[in-house]
Protein backbone atom coordinates (compact mmCIF):
# COMPACT_ATOMS: atom_id res chain seq x y z
CA UNK A 1 0.00 0.00 0.00
CA UNK A 2 1.09 3.56 -0.66
CA UNK A 3 1.67 5.48 2.55
CA UNK A 4 4.09 8.37 1.92
CA UNK A 5 4.76 11.12 -0.59
CA UNK A 6 7.91 9.33 -1.73
CA UNK A 7 5.98 6.13 -2.40
CA UNK A 8 3.34 8.01 -4.40
CA UNK A 9 6.02 9.72 -6.49
CA UNK A 10 7.67 6.39 -7.19
CA UNK A 11 4.33 4.83 -8.20
CA UNK A 12 3.78 7.58 -10.77
CA UNK A 13 7.29 7.18 -12.15
CA UNK A 14 6.88 3.39 -12.43
CA UNK A 15 3.51 3.72 -14.17
CA UNK A 16 5.11 6.04 -16.71
CA UNK A 17 8.45 4.22 -16.95
CA UNK A 18 10.07 7.54 -16.14
CA UNK A 19 12.58 9.17 -13.77
CA UNK A 20 12.90 12.62 -12.21
CA UNK A 21 15.68 13.43 -14.68
CA UNK A 22 13.09 13.61 -17.47
CA UNK A 23 11.63 17.00 -18.39
CA UNK A 24 7.99 16.20 -17.56
CA UNK A 25 8.74 14.34 -14.33
CA UNK A 26 10.88 16.64 -12.21
CA UNK A 27 10.38 16.69 -8.44
CA UNK A 28 8.65 20.08 -8.64
CA UNK A 29 6.19 18.90 -11.28
CA UNK A 30 5.42 15.69 -9.40
CA UNK A 31 4.92 17.64 -6.17
CA UNK A 32 2.46 19.96 -7.92
CA UNK A 33 0.52 17.06 -9.48
CA UNK A 34 0.36 15.12 -6.23
CA UNK A 35 -0.68 18.11 -4.13
CA UNK A 36 -3.40 19.10 -6.57
CA UNK A 37 -4.64 15.51 -6.58
CA UNK A 38 -4.39 15.39 -2.77
CA UNK A 39 -6.58 18.49 -2.39
CA UNK A 40 -9.14 16.91 -4.71
CA UNK A 41 -9.21 13.63 -2.77
CA UNK A 42 -9.19 15.23 0.68
CA UNK A 43 -12.15 17.46 -0.15
CA UNK A 44 -14.12 14.88 -2.17
CA UNK A 45 -16.21 13.93 0.88
CA UNK A 46 -16.58 15.03 4.49
CA UNK A 47 -14.20 12.34 5.64
CA UNK A 48 -14.48 11.48 9.36
CA UNK A 49 -10.69 11.56 9.64
CA UNK A 50 -10.66 15.24 8.58
CA UNK A 51 -12.97 16.22 11.41
CA UNK A 52 -11.72 18.26 14.34
CA UNK A 53 -13.01 19.68 17.61
CA UNK A 54 -12.63 23.39 18.32
CA UNK A 55 -13.13 24.70 21.88
CA UNK A 56 -11.70 28.21 21.68
CA UNK A 57 -14.86 30.28 22.12
CA UNK A 58 -17.12 30.92 25.11
CA UNK A 59 -20.86 31.25 24.58
CA UNK A 60 -22.12 34.75 25.39
CA UNK A 61 -25.83 35.05 26.15
CA UNK A 62 -27.38 37.58 23.78
CA UNK A 63 -24.69 37.12 21.15
CA UNK A 64 -25.85 35.30 18.03
CA UNK A 65 -23.04 35.48 15.47
CA UNK A 66 -19.62 33.85 15.90
CA UNK A 67 -16.67 33.61 13.52
CA UNK A 68 -15.74 30.22 12.15
CA UNK A 69 -12.59 28.55 13.50
CA UNK A 70 -9.81 29.72 11.18
CA UNK A 71 -8.76 26.19 10.22
CA UNK A 72 -12.30 24.92 9.51
CA UNK A 73 -13.80 24.65 6.05
CA UNK A 74 -16.80 26.89 5.47
CA UNK A 75 -20.24 25.45 6.28
CA UNK A 76 -18.72 22.31 7.80
CA UNK A 77 -19.77 22.39 11.47
CA UNK A 78 -21.97 19.33 11.92
CA UNK A 79 -22.38 19.20 15.70
CA UNK A 80 -22.20 21.82 18.43
CA UNK A 81 -22.43 21.93 22.21
CA UNK A 82 -22.42 24.76 24.71
CA UNK A 83 -21.14 23.45 27.99
CA UNK A 84 -22.69 19.99 28.16
CA UNK A 85 -25.82 20.84 26.16
CA UNK A 86 -26.18 19.65 22.56
CA UNK A 87 -27.69 21.99 19.97
CA UNK A 88 -29.74 20.98 16.92
CA UNK A 89 -28.48 22.15 13.56
CA UNK A 90 -30.95 23.79 11.19
CA UNK A 91 -30.22 24.92 7.68
CA UNK A 92 -29.80 28.70 7.49
CA UNK A 93 -33.25 29.47 6.06
CA UNK A 94 -35.12 27.37 8.61
CA UNK A 95 -33.07 28.85 11.42
CA UNK A 96 -34.04 32.37 10.37
CA UNK A 97 -37.71 31.41 10.04
CA UNK A 98 -37.65 29.78 13.45
CA UNK A 99 -36.06 32.85 15.04
CA UNK A 100 -38.69 35.09 13.41
CA UNK A 101 -41.55 32.86 14.58
CA UNK A 102 -40.16 32.48 18.11
CA UNK A 103 -37.92 35.46 18.73
CA UNK A 104 -38.00 34.87 22.49
CA UNK A 105 -37.69 31.08 22.25
CA UNK A 106 -34.85 29.45 24.15
CA UNK A 107 -34.55 26.48 21.78
CA UNK A 108 -31.10 24.89 21.57
CA UNK A 109 -30.55 25.49 17.86
CA UNK A 110 -27.74 26.73 15.63
CA UNK A 111 -26.83 27.14 11.97
CA UNK A 112 -23.90 28.21 9.84
CA UNK A 113 -23.28 29.96 6.55
CA UNK A 114 -20.00 30.92 4.96
CA UNK A 115 -17.42 31.81 7.60
CA UNK A 116 -19.90 32.40 10.45
CA UNK A 117 -22.12 30.29 12.69
CA UNK A 118 -25.22 31.40 14.57
CA UNK A 119 -26.34 30.23 18.01
CA UNK A 120 -29.77 31.10 19.36
CA UNK A 121 -28.90 34.07 21.61
CA UNK A 122 -31.87 33.25 23.86
CA UNK A 123 -30.71 29.69 24.51
CA UNK A 124 -30.56 28.75 28.17
CA UNK A 125 -26.95 27.62 28.11
CA UNK A 126 -23.53 28.62 29.34
CA UNK A 127 -19.93 27.56 28.97
CA UNK A 128 -17.47 26.80 26.19
CA UNK A 129 -18.64 26.27 22.61
CA UNK A 130 -17.53 22.85 21.35
CA UNK A 131 -17.79 22.71 17.56
CA UNK A 132 -17.03 19.67 15.40
CA UNK A 133 -16.19 20.49 11.78
CA UNK A 134 -13.94 19.69 8.84
CA UNK A 135 -10.46 21.15 9.02
CA UNK A 136 -8.54 22.44 6.03
CA UNK A 137 -5.99 19.87 4.92
CA UNK A 138 -2.49 21.24 4.40
CA UNK A 139 -0.52 20.46 1.26
CA UNK A 140 2.38 18.02 1.44
CA UNK A 141 5.90 19.42 1.78
CA UNK A 142 7.65 18.25 -1.37
CA UNK A 143 11.02 18.19 0.38
CA UNK A 144 9.83 15.54 2.88
CA UNK A 145 9.51 12.13 1.15
CA UNK A 146 8.19 10.60 4.38
CA UNK A 147 5.24 13.02 4.43
CA UNK A 148 1.83 11.39 4.85
CA UNK A 149 -1.76 12.26 3.92
CA UNK A 150 -5.01 12.12 5.88
CA UNK A 151 -5.55 8.69 4.31
CA UNK A 152 -2.22 7.31 5.54
CA UNK A 153 -2.45 5.01 8.51
CA UNK A 154 -6.19 4.46 8.23
CA UNK A 155 -7.44 4.43 4.65
CA UNK A 156 -4.21 4.09 2.65
CA UNK A 157 -6.19 3.05 -0.42
CA UNK A 158 -7.07 6.74 -0.68
CA UNK A 159 -3.45 7.41 -1.61
CA UNK A 160 -3.99 5.23 -4.68
CA UNK A 161 -6.79 7.62 -5.63
CA UNK A 162 -4.32 10.49 -5.31
CA UNK A 163 -1.89 8.70 -7.64
CA UNK A 164 -4.66 8.03 -10.18
CA UNK A 165 -5.73 11.68 -10.14
CA UNK A 166 -2.11 12.80 -10.51
CA UNK A 167 -1.83 10.39 -13.45
CA UNK A 168 -4.76 12.16 -15.09
CA UNK A 169 -2.74 15.42 -14.97
CA UNK A 170 0.23 13.64 -16.52
CA UNK A 171 -1.92 12.38 -19.39
CA UNK A 172 -3.51 15.78 -19.94
CA UNK A 173 -0.04 17.27 -20.28
CA UNK A 174 0.77 14.54 -22.81
CA UNK A 175 -2.42 15.55 -24.68
CA UNK A 176 -4.08 12.18 -24.08
CA UNK A 177 -7.56 13.21 -22.83
CA UNK A 178 -9.07 9.71 -23.00
CA UNK A 179 -6.34 8.27 -20.78
CA UNK A 180 -6.63 11.28 -18.46
CA UNK A 181 -10.36 10.66 -18.11
CA UNK A 182 -9.73 6.97 -17.41
CA UNK A 183 -7.40 7.78 -14.50
CA UNK A 184 -9.75 10.42 -13.13
CA UNK A 185 -12.63 7.93 -13.14
CA UNK A 186 -10.41 5.38 -11.37
CA UNK A 187 -9.65 7.97 -8.70
CA UNK A 188 -13.33 8.71 -8.15
CA UNK A 189 -14.20 5.00 -8.03
CA UNK A 190 -11.63 4.43 -5.28
CA UNK A 191 -12.87 7.37 -3.23
CA UNK A 192 -16.49 6.28 -3.62
CA UNK A 193 -15.56 2.78 -2.45
CA UNK A 194 -13.86 4.15 0.66
CA UNK A 195 -16.88 6.36 1.39
CA UNK A 196 -19.27 3.43 0.97
CA UNK A 197 -17.27 1.32 3.42
CA UNK A 198 -17.21 4.15 5.95
CA UNK A 199 -20.97 4.62 5.64
CA UNK A 200 -21.57 0.90 6.12
CA UNK A 201 -19.53 1.04 9.31
CA UNK A 202 -21.34 4.15 10.58
CA UNK A 203 -24.74 2.54 10.07
CA UNK A 204 -23.79 -0.33 12.37
CA UNK A 205 -23.59 2.07 15.30
CA UNK A 206 -26.51 2.24 17.71
CA UNK A 207 -27.78 5.45 19.22
CA UNK A 208 -30.60 6.49 21.50
CA UNK A 209 -32.64 8.89 19.43
CA UNK A 210 -30.95 11.27 17.03
CA UNK A 211 -28.69 14.19 17.83
CA UNK A 212 -29.40 15.48 14.33
CA UNK A 213 -33.15 16.01 14.60
CA UNK A 214 -34.47 18.82 12.43
CA UNK A 215 -37.37 21.09 13.27
CA UNK A 216 -40.35 21.22 10.92
CA UNK A 217 -41.12 24.94 11.08
CA UNK A 218 -44.66 24.61 9.72
CA UNK A 219 -45.83 21.70 11.85
CA UNK A 220 -43.63 22.12 14.91
CA UNK A 221 -42.37 18.55 14.76
CA UNK A 222 -38.92 16.98 14.95
CA UNK A 223 -37.80 15.24 11.79
CA UNK A 224 -34.89 13.10 12.93
CA UNK A 225 -35.09 10.72 9.99
CA UNK A 226 -35.41 13.16 7.12
CA UNK A 227 -32.48 12.98 4.68
CA UNK A 228 -30.55 16.19 4.13
CA UNK A 229 -27.33 17.12 2.38
CA UNK A 230 -26.29 18.93 5.58
CA UNK A 231 -26.41 15.76 7.65
CA UNK A 232 -23.22 13.83 8.34
CA UNK A 233 -22.80 10.09 8.66
Topology (SSEs and partners):
Blueprint: H1 5-15, H2 27-42, E1 51-58, E2 65-67, E3 79-82, E4 85-89, H3 92-101, E5 109-113, E6 116-119, E7 128-134, H4 157-173, H5 177-202, E8 215-216, E9 221-222
Parallel strand pairs: 4-5
Antiparallel strand pairs: 1-7, 2-6, 3-4, 3-7, 5-6, 8-9
Brief synopsis:
The chain folds into two domains: 5-43 and 144-202; 48-135, no CATH class. With 233 residues, the protein is an alpha+beta fold. It has helices at residues 5-15, 27-42, 92-101, 157-173, 177-202; strands at 51-58, 65-67, 79-82, 85-89, 109-113, 116-119, 128-134, 215-216, 221-222.
What key phrases describe this protein's structure?
233 residues, seven-stranded mixed beta sheet, 5 helices, 9 strands, 17% strand, disordered C terminus
Description:
With 233 residues, the protein is of the alpha+beta class. The protein folds into 2 domains: 5-43 and 144-202; 48-135, no CATH class. Helices cover 34% and strands 17% of the residues. It is built from 5 helices and 9 strands. The protein has helices at 5-15, 27-42, 92-101, 157-173, 177-202, and strands spanning 51-58, 65-67, 79-82, 85-89, 109-113, 116-119, 128-134, 215-216, 221-222. The strands form 2 sheets. It has a 7-stranded mixed sheet, with no helix packed on it. It has a two-stranded antiparallel ribbon with strand order 8-9. Helix 1 (5-15) packs across helix 2 and helix 1 (5-15) crosses helix 4 (157-173).
Amino acid sequence: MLNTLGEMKNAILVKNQASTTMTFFTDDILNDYINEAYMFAASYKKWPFTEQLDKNVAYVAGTEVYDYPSNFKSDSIRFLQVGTQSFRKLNFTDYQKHREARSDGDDLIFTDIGRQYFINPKADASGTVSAWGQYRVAQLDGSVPAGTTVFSGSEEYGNSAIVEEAMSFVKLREKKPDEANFHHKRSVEILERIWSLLQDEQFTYHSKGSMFEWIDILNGQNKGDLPSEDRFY
